[in-house]
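job 3f2a | input accepted
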Amino acid sequence: MTLGSLVSELVDERSLDALERLTGSRNEEVLEALIEAAGRILADDRSEEVDDDIVERIRDHLVDSRAVGPLTDALSGSPPEAIEFALGCLSEIGDLDAVPPMIAILEGRDPQLREAAAEHLALLTKYDFGQDAKRWREWQQRRIRGLAEQAEEDREDEARLLNLKLRGQNEDADRREGPYR
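job 3f2a | predicted structure (181 res):
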């Protein structure tokens, strides 16, 4: 069975067998297809009893798989339902690499998506600048600068420790040789 036919079976028939087969894989194409399927189910006018369970199982699988790449890809060019679904998964995963594409949504035209992006940015970062894309970008730039400064401090700390170890080894050697060299 092809990936497309499994996704169609999942979306059209709400097949739990297709869901099981799809969530058994961490292949990036399958993860992308699952995001699309969740969006299609959420957008479907007919609501079935199993819909919430299916969408939740897809979410759990994507979060467990830490599918940040496919989820951030879904933020651009996907239907609104898939974008909102991806935003929720990304905030649950907690990977701050998702911040820039989430900020980009704040600059879009869809007020519902802007609101969802702001909400999930706040959940992800524990900061809340609402729908103010400029303030979010400034925060992201400060965060990146802070990471760079921390990396520099870490390198300096490692160099100091190495120097101390080397000095300590030299002092130990001097003590072993005694006062008469």
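job 3f2a | DSSP finds nine helices and no strands in the chain.
job 3f2a | closed
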